[in-house]
Amino acid sequence: MELARYICVIGGKGGVGKTTSAISLAHAMGKHKKTLLVDANLSTPNAHIHLGSPMLKKSLMNALKGEISVQEAIHSHDSGLRIIPTISTVRDLKMLKYDKLKQAIRELEGHAEIILLDTAAGLNREAITAIEACDEALVITNPELSAVLDSQKAIQVANELGKTILGVVVNKHGEHRSELKVNEVEKLLDLPVIGVIPYDRRVKRAQYFKHPVTYIHPESKASKSYEQLAGLLLGKSYFESTGKDKTLYHYLLRRLGLG
Ligand SMILES: Nc1ncnc2c1ncn2[C@@H]1O[C@H](COP(=O)(O)OP(=O)(O)O)[C@@H](O)[C@H]1O
Ligand SMILES: [Mg+2]
């Protein structure tokens, strides 16, 4: 197996759709490559809540405490998604040595080709550790100024750590009439928008049914956008055949040092 790609999903602000996007992309990418989603939001983990497994006995936290190996914390969801969930108590967090996260993540080598990390909001120690643990970062934001400005800081941190920023995903597009335009987001962040996910009620519906939207509503606009983005991130481009987004595809190859 090739060396894994470690991609963190960052954004700065809470509620923009980092967890939703990490779950949907992990599910979509998982159809093409062996993929693993890791809930690296250690203080307020909720990927397992989105997926309906609140009572898990083996989570990333058990591995970080040395009780189990990190591989033992890999769970398979009914949708096919592979996930290492996190369940933490305040006491766990007080005792936690954040550096262990980096070590644990690297121990997943050989168990997946794509390792996607969901991260905490804000730019505290744990969010920064998750960025440090990865090589690539995908920025999720909403088309509103406060979210964009918060993501600007996350981008700055990732840049300072020498990470490859794959691009920006504008999520919940079309929710408000007065929102920022995609090109305004690009200008503010000085990065290309490589995915636009519409505001779609079926995303919330999927969450209610504890499934990735790409699994339960594959025909929805949000799912199609996530599938397209997953294809772009994996470098399999139906963009290429249409010629439409060729520049975007080549941009991404260059970011990864392949073009
Ligand atoms: N594209 C979307 N359309 C509609 N609702 C969305 C979309 N993306 C996320 N949401 C909703 O927004 C809320 C916050 O999403 P979440 O992924 O938990 O954000 P974060 O992880 O950034 O805090 C959830 O209720 C989720 O269902
Ligand atoms: Mg989240």
Structure explained in plain terms:
This protein has an eight-stranded mixed β-sheet, with helices on both faces. The chain contains 13 helices and eight strands. Helices cover 42% and strands 17% of the residues. The protein is globular. Helix 1 (18-29) packs across helix 11 (221-234). It is of the alpha/beta class. The chain has a single domain, classed as P-loop containing nucleotide triphosphate hydrolases (Rossmann fold, 3-Layer(aba) Sandwich). The chain has helices at 18-29, 47-50, 60-64, 90-95, 99-106, 125-133, 145-160, 182-189, 201-208, 213-216, 221-234, 238-242, 246-255, and strands spanning 5-10, 35-39, 75-76, 82-84, 114-118, 136-141, 164-173, 193-198. The model is unreliable at 237-242 (pLDDT under 50). The two termini are 22 Å apart. The structure holds adenosine-5'-diphosphate and magnesium ion (MG). The site of magnesium ion has 4 residues, from helix 1.
What's a quick, concise take on this entry?
The chain has 259 residues and is of the alpha/beta class. The chain contains 13 helices and 8 strands.
